[in-house]
Amino acid sequence: MTEKFSTAMYMDRGAEQLVEILNYYISAIVEKVLIFGGDILKFAGDALLALWKVERKQLKNIITVVIKCSLEIHGLFEAKEVEEGLDIRVKIGLAAGHISMLVFGDETRNYFLVIGQAVDDVRLAQGMAQMNDVILSPNCWQLCDRSMIEIERIPDQRAVKVNFLKPPATFNFDEFLTKCMSFMDYYPTSKHKNILRLACMLESDPKLELALQKYVMENILKQIDDKQLGGYLSELRPVTIVFVNLMFKEQDKAEVIGPAIQSACVHITSVLKVFRGQINKVFMFDKGCSFLCVFGFPGEKAPDEVTHALESAVDIFDFCSQVHKIHMFGMAYLICNRNEGYPLLGREKEIKYFMCTMKEFLISNCSQILMYEGLSGFGKSQILMEIEYLAQGENHRTIAIALTKVSFHQNFYTIQILMANVLGLDTCKHYKERQSSLQSKVKTLLDDKFHCLLNDIFHVQFPISREISRMSTTRKQKHLEALFMKILEKTVKEERIIFIIDEAQFVDIASWAFMEKLIQTVPIFIIMALSPFIDSPCASASAIMKNRNTTYVTLGAVQPKDIRNKVCIDLNVSSISKELDAYLVEGSCGIPYYCEELLKNLDNHKILLFQQKESEEKTNVTWNNMFRNLTKPTGEFNIFSLSKYDGVEEVCNLASGVRLRNLSPPASLKEISLVQLDSMSLSHQMLVRCAAIIGLTFTTELLFEILPCWNMKMMIKALATLVESNIFYCFRNSKALRLALKHNVTSFEVHYRSLSLKPRDMLARGEQEELREKEGEVIECHIIRFRQPMMQKTAYELWLKDQKIAMHLKCARFLEENAHRCDHCRNRDFIPYHHFTVDIRLNTLDMETIKKMAKSHGFQNKEEIMFSKAEMPKISEFFSEDLSPQGIKEKILGFFDLIITKMKTSQEDIIPLESCQCEEILQMVILPLAHHFVALEENNKALYYFLEIASAYLILGDNYRAYLYLNEGEKLLKTLKKEKSWSQTFESATYYTLKGQVCFNMGHMVLAKKMLRRALKLLNRTFPYNFISLFLQSHVEKNRHFYFLNQQGQEGPPPEKKRLAQLYQQTTCFSLLWQIYSLNYFFHHQYYGNLAALMQVNTALETQNDFQIIKAYLDYSLYHQLRGYQGMWFNYEIMAMEQILNLPLKGEGIEIMAHVADTLGYIKFIMGHLDLAIELGSRAHKMWALLRNPNKHYIVLCRLSKSLFLKSRYKQLIQVLGWLWDLSVAEEHIFSKAFFYFVCLDILLYSGFIYRTFEECLEFIHQNEDNRILKFQNGLLLGLYSSIAVWYARLQEWENFYKFFNRAKTLVPRRTPTLLYYEGIIRYMEGQVLHLQKQIEEQSENAQDSGVELLKNLERLVAQNTTGPVFYPRLHHLMAYVCILMGDGVNCDLFLNTALQLCESQGNTLEKCWLNMSKEWWYSSSELTSDQWLQTVLSLPTWEKIASGKISIHDVQKNKFLMRVNILDNPF
Known about the structure:
Blueprint (H helix, E strand, L loop, with lengths): L1 H5 L8 H21 L3 E6 L2 E5 L7 H21 L12 E3 L5 E6 L4 E6 L1 H12 L5 E3 L1 H6 L5 E5 L6 E6 L7 H9 L24 H8 L4 H8 L14 E8 L6 H21 L2 E9 L2 E8 L9 H16 L27 H17 L3 E6 L6 H12 L4 E7 L10 H10 L8 H12 L12 H4 L7 H4 L3 H22 L1 E7 L6 H13 L3 E6 L8 H8 L3 E5 L5 H12 L3 E3 H11 L3 H13 L3 E5 L17 E2 L6 H4 L2 E2 L2 E7 L12 H12 L3 H13 L2 E3 H7 L5 H13 L3 E4 L2 H9 L5 E3 L1 H5 L3 H21 L2 E4 L2 H9 L3 H16 L17 H4 L9 H10 L5 H9 L4 H4 L6 H21 L12 H18 L3 H17 L3 H17 L6 H21 L2 H14 L8 H21 L9 H22 L6 H19 L2 H18 L2 H15 L7 H19 L3 H17 L3 H17 L3 H17 L3 H18 L6 H11 L3 H4 L2 H17 ...
Parallel strand pairs: 3-6, 12-15, 12-16, 13-14, 14-15, 17-21
Antiparallel strand pairs: 1-2, 4-5, 6-8, 7-8, 9-11, 10-11, 16-24, 17-19, 18-21, 20-21, 22-25, 23-25
């Protein structure tokens, strides 16, 4: 049973489960024993020893009582089943007779034992018992009331087995028990029925307490003295155990055994104390006494615990026997071997330190010392191994050794090894060979009579001379050091010595002293790797560290990309799953050893799944494989990691159903964390354990809430100390946290020489001041994070299950109050009206909370609305019937100008004081809350919050995270009982709606449509599947639409909150459905699209919510504009504008106005009205900037930059790009930064100047292409890849072209009706056009087919409803070029003229200029050189030159790429 549970995979399983089962059954046994008058003397694992202390005359009756107790215990186990599939039964042995008690120990700790024949008998009886047996020893059988017991004889034994009791018919056992217990003075009488022992009623007795404390373990007493609450004393932790068994002869009596046990106990205690071990239990076993010695109790964990246990065992054994010790001469070689095929990853900076120091050593001819300090596992040995390889060269002798803990206690050991290498003794196999070699090498340096000085150090046997025998030890050492110095001086004249020492913290004091003299006398290069000194280093070590020629480097962690590379190489795969990558990067903290141990742990539990890499084109997309989220190593390491057998690559995935978050850490890493934890004070340990319950990241407010009996000052002081000792990080906000997690701390140089120059009192004051600064920092920073996830997991596992539940409940209650959107977003749910639909709150709602929530959802009182309306122009005044379109345009722009002016000048609280904090709330409140509910097994509550999380990540543009948490939600949905409740139906519908959104964003429209239809069905709004139901539904919806429009002026009661939640989900589904249907070419899909758009409007009108109605109007307008319905779209835009005139100039009202300006700007851009798009976009930019909404602000800046780009208004464009860059840096926003570089590439390709260099853009892509937000926002990444491919195609660097073009090709099938996708696909098409040019030039066989297919694809894009007219000029331009390449001049003219007309009507000056140049070039007789674009690129001016006026913008416009047409006289 122990083996089964000790190898459990998850943190909530294993040892705790075993304890739970044992407690469950043993507590039942204990209760029975106490009820029947017995006492528990000893526990030993799953066994216990009970005693009934009685007079001789009562023995017969008490045996009957004990047999009754034993049979009832068996009855307990027969009635109970273990759900883990284990059959647990009990076997019982009974004996009767006299016993003796031995008390032994020392002045601090006492133990007791019971010995005697009865103890031996009961052990033998229990050994004979099988499961469910009760065995009576021979003496017990002789003394019992045989008339009451039915027995069964055991063959060849005097002991007997009890079958059952057979009392007389008139026998009353309760009366019999009461009578028996009356003779036991410690058993409670009828007056005290509620207690089991009278000892519970004893008054406090200090003397008795002090006596009893000696029987309690020292670490428990410490925790009690530290005022730790009783409920927090228990914990689960791994320990190391040593059994010491003292064997005695049968004839040995108590007076012989007692002193022997006492003597052994004293010695064992003294040995264990050195290594922080303790005697846990002492018990008799067979003919011996066993001591259970434990290392690693709470507060006593030490490094190298197993080594200490082994040393202790040897010492204890030596106490009983003498072992002859043999002196051996050995070498301490650096044990790592360098692997040519395995690069040293992420240590370029550390190797650079070596190369620079080595260069200095060779030039200056004076000693150099290079010291690498790092904790265990940082890869110090691997660095030295690489250095040893790099240090090899002519006239160099490299001596590399690795020390151990034993080395420190061996005087002069390090120098002994150095000199043995220098003298060539390392190759000698026998002492005689060593002696002969030594004699020849020191002949000229040392008189024969002094040769015996070398005996002890090199284990040789030169005759001892009289002079040496009279020398003191100190004088001998001086002679020896002088000899070694002469040898080294002679050696360095012939060759340079590079001395490499691994584990240099174990260099002995004498060796440090010699090295201090050595570096001052002999030019030598010493390289050391060491762990931090536990105590202060000796004087010589300090002097070396402070030497002017010492370079002291503190090793930092390896960067995430290098961890990824290491994993791929270790597993021999081409890529790993993103989830595995995140787990290893986070869990290892950049420490290579941690990464290796985590990988071994995963492999041991069969979690890693190795599969052949599938082609993305061949894979059918399902929800489960939608995110083929494989992370690849960086390019330079691909050659090491690719696992190819017969051309097949392998990838590493995770086995299905694995929860990496809950995985228990490896035992090796757990021990490291426990050592660190036990080095803290008990109060600090308690703080860390409480923090571990909250999670890896937590807030100081929540920590204070769950800390037992702490005040704020105590907590701040403790946190400051723990931050100072590198247990925690602290951050002011989540933005700072995200920034810190991107990169690990790198290695840095420490200047001990300059530190030593500071006065000591100043250093002491500095430490105190630093701690006060840390306290101030902790007060300012409310976000704290564990530096190492292993510490958090280890501390978490120390809690018992009941304690965890209580703590998780505390956390959940606290977090629940803030589990909603931020104040900026009016504290709403991420899923509108979610909490009104699903009752999941732990805390009850008071009226104030309800009012706050109601207000947060936009329910204002009439005074607020009327006051706001008074400031707004009336509808009749705003849109008079005789206004022209130009007049309406001016009115709309004027209206937005008025709003912006009021926002800037109003005295009211219109503009929010801070920007949106939803992302921080998501990370710090809602995510932890969901996991607390999972731990509490409150699956319905956890599901609620996982859906909220998925919705939040969709709002933040992170499709991958949304996908992950939807999968978590799916697991919980399956565990819920299938009920017909509306709340559960709504949760299911929301789940499918969110899945539909993820599928839509990822470009998997078939899957998205399926999910959205399913969601609508659950929301009682079925979408038609066939033509008949389509036309019927269309008729119904048209009637509803007219009804809603006619009723709009009449204010009816708003729908209830549950209904609103349902309607909001429906509008989301319809909004996505009409876009999906618009993507399809088949004619009947336009009817489905039209119906979905109409149903969105009707549903929005039913909500009576202004924002939903306006959004639906604008969507409906866009739909009709893309379909080409001129009259309809204009009406709905006017209706949207009329609607916002009813809104108050505060809160949501202003946000809706900003949204309208933003959306109108987007629509005008899509439709090619560039001037109006710029006007509206500029106003939307100002409004979102004032509203402090970065998530909306960056989108409008992206759109505005594209409008300005097409208009060639470069001065404004560069200004907007500057704003976009500043926003991306301030908010650490990867999407806006990627768009910035996308526009920079466009400027390079089409505008003819440099704003950011191509190399900078390319570097950004290389560094961020695996970013989860970019990777799963395929439109932007498609554009970036395609732009790079076009650049290389223009330069005719086809190998680089194919690399990026093929990456783009994988993203093309993921079509989304978004601006970014069409931007990307047009760049991709341009790449195809340039490739066609290459095919024609090379007279490829399939060039004509490729051209025809390409022309069809371009025509399809133009014909597609969702392709906005703004893209038509470029598409027609490309079509014209394809036609002229294929010799079709007529269609080329047609497409060119069409493109020019479109440019003229749209005001697209960029494309117009390029078209005119193309037209002039194509029909001229001039020839184009193949390196024309290269020459253009080399002469491209920077924006700074243009802005300063050194270069005219008109000259810049001529820097266009001219497509070559005169490739062949006859292409086909």
